[in-house]
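Protocol step 4 of 5: obtain the predicted structure for the target chain.
Materials: sequence only (see below). No template structures provided, no constraints applied. The aim of this step is simply to have a reference model before the mutagenesis design in step 5. Sequence pasted as it appears in the construct record:
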Amino acid sequence: MSRLRIRGIYTTALTERFREEFDVVQASPPIRRRFDAEFAAKEYDASVETTDDRQGAGVVGDPETVERVADDLASLGVDTFRWTDPAPRGTVFDAVVTDTLGGGAVVDLGDREGYLSFGRVDRRIDEGDRVRVQVHDPAPPWADHRPVLGAELQAFGGVVSLSTGVDKIVASGDEATRTELARTTEMLPTEVPDDWGVRWEYAAEDAGMDAMSDALGRAVERAETIDAGLADAPDSTSDGSRADLPRKLAAPEATTWCWFGRESRFALDAERRDVTTTMPGHHRVKAARESASAAVDFVEDLWTETDALGDDDEFPTGAALRQFGPAAGDRIEIRHGKPDGRCFSLGRGEVTACSPDEGKVTVRRKMTGGGTYDALGTSRESGDAAITKFREGRWWYPTVYRSEEGESKGTYVNVCTPVELFPEAARYVDLHVDVVKFPDGTVERVDDDELDAAVETGEIAAPLAEKARSVAGSVERALK
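Step 4 output (structure tokens):
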């Protein structure tokens, strides 16, 4: 049975979802108490971790296990999206620096760019230089930062890692723990390859001898995979041709990203509710920010005490908006996700109206001049305003464009996954097909071909595409 380590705000739900098919390991004390079970401190085959922005999860580790886990996560809800990272954790590239910034360099990895801090390389590098780098901290495709790279090679693990930047044996914890782990290492039968040092992680403190030996053996296998990939590669600083760069030299692990939409989060609520008290919209609220997590924990503790929570309660949209925002007068960003994993900002605007109980927010943006409005063809002039009306959970939202004098320049209705209103942003994934209403009242449905193409490439599942077409049809009829 493959082993999983799970971390982040979705841990309870995913532990419940996966514990029959996988051996969940390295569980935190709250998870052990919640499930009233023992979880071994063994090395994982794959790790599932909530992304920094709480919008989804990254799955990293053994390629076969990563694929199985990602397949399961992709089935959570109709608005779950998944992407295979072309630059997974641990991958080693020979690549070229394309730009230098204040503290580091931008490196072309082929399908992605990475960021190499000057402090992570032992020589001066400039634009055009050839570098050998490893992906240390991958980033989801919708993130506003690049994957973090390093020149030091690592074979990553949850119990033990190997590193070319470690001379001997290092360990987490206090001095007594570090000394004990160092002595234990010397007793293990596994031989560490030359030029690699041992780094014991925090989970090693609870691991037995057999688990430590197994973990070290797995780390050595990953290190040997990297060594084999580098064995026939030319020197990383040679002045040879760069025409064949970037080149992937070794990929001991895989990384896949899953973006959870509103319905997917509710599906995770149901998984969690089978284990412990879970308020409606538990993961929806926790996805907002750290303070929201604390508030959810408090509410659920309170409801546990009073036994006031029922499974059929609806998500408390009004309470969430009143407690965490956005509110009238705030400025929020429109985060426009795409089915291929990218995420764009459509700009920030002022919240001019907010009806928490109805989950409604109106956002006004000032427009700059130049060009025309997409699909409408009307001129975009300085002084124009875009008035967008969002409603939590709705599969579409309208934007009305008006001139400085208040005359309509048309309405654009975006069809998307259910809108989520967070304190600083409205989020969704665009589903291509849209409906526009021209200033003369003519209504037209657009971009069906883009939706069809996305289905053919597998970016959008057929059931989700059918939902998008149905929504577009309803909007089109309503506007005529």
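Step 4 remarks: The chain has a mean pLDDT of 93. The CA atoms of residues 2 and 22 lie 5 Å apart.
Proceed to step 5.
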